[in-house]
UniProtKB/TrEMBL annotation:
The lineage of its organism: Bacteria, Bacillati, Actinomycetota, Actinomycetes, Kitasatosporales. This is SAM-dependent methyltransferase. Keywords: Methyltransferase, Transferase. GO terms for biological process: methylation. GO terms for molecular function: methyltransferase activity. The keyword Ribosomal protein does not apply. It holds the Pfam family Methyltransf_19.
Length: 273
């Protein structure tokens, strides 16, 4: 079976006048799937914190290394929430390079992302990909979505991915509760991969300007400390090397990483016992 399950679907209304985190992230990665409003907002952020572009690239590398690790451990189905634009290589490509029959569902709250995913993502002949317009703040709706129900078997271990999405949910949006709901539902033996921007290594005035730059784009966000990030892994067993900055998580190249304050994003992979 190839591609996503067929379903009746029409593109939802798109807000063309507001910057979107997924499209800004695409711009940080050097992609072309973004609008002038996204580039203008991203440039404001980069003017304050130029290394954020490199942080995005490092986070992407962490994501793909984590997916490969999960696939090598026998995980053959993945739920990627806050997936962003289908930058290649993507989760299904890495997973299916290890397990050709791997099944992947991508979830994002930007309808433009969904349109691009449906147009660009091609599964291996043996595998399956699905797409859901959903929001991490409503995990029950994501889990109940037809593509999730049709593509994934939540009674079997799954690779749950929450890469660079939690920092867009301030505490008043209850991200910890959403993550706990997802962890409760997935089967024992599942893996959870998460990454998150931190201010632990930044000078207060620098990160204050960065927060102000994001606020000017009307995009909500909250950097968290290592201890606050650890709370998302409650009830899980961290996989070595545990919580690290993403550039230090099992790097593939023997290249000295840049200073920690230039790539301030924690990442970790954990297993549900």
């Amino acid at each position: 079976m190839t591609g996503s399950p067929e379903e009746r679907w029409t593109p939802p209304t798109v807000d063309w006048d507001s910057a979107n985190p997924a499209r800004m992230y695409d711009y940080f990665l050097g992609g072309k799937d973004n609008f002038p409003v996204d580039r203008q907002a991203a440039d404001k952020v980069l003017a304050v914190y130029p290394s954020l572009r490199n942080t995005a690239v490092a986070n992407r590398g962490f994501l793909l290394r984590g997916v490969r690790r999960m696939a090598e451990e026998g995980i053959a189905q993945f739920l990627d929430i806050g997936s962003g634009y289908p930058t290649s290589p993507n989760v299904h490509e890495v997973a299916q390079s290890v397990a050709p029959s791997a099944r992947v569902v991508y979830v994002d709250n930007d309808p433009v992302v969904l349109v691009h995913a449906r147009a660009k993502i091609t599964s291996s002949p043996e595998g399956v990909t699905g797409y859901v317009l959903g929001d991490l703040r409503d995990p029950a709706d994501i889990l109940a979505a037809p593509p999730v129900q049709q593509v994934l078997d939540l009674n079997q271990p799954v690779g749950l991915i929450l890469a660079a999405v939690l920092h867009f949910l301030p505490d008043d949006m209850h991200p910890l509760r959403a993550v706990q709901h997802l962890i409760e539902v997935v089967a024992p033996g599942s893996y959870v991969l998460m990454s998150h921007i931190t201010a632990d290594f930044a000078k207060d005035e620098t990160f204050g300007r960065l927060a102000a730059a994001y606020s000017s784009t009307a995009i909500a966000g909250q950097a968290r400390t290592r201890r606050e990030f650890e709370q998302f892994f409650e009830g899980l067993e961290l996989v070595a090397p545990g919580i690290t900055l993403v550039q230090h998580w099992l790097p593939e190249a023997e290249v000295p990483p840049p200073p920690d304050d230039l790539m301030p994003c924690y990442g970790a992979l954990a297993r549900k016992p």
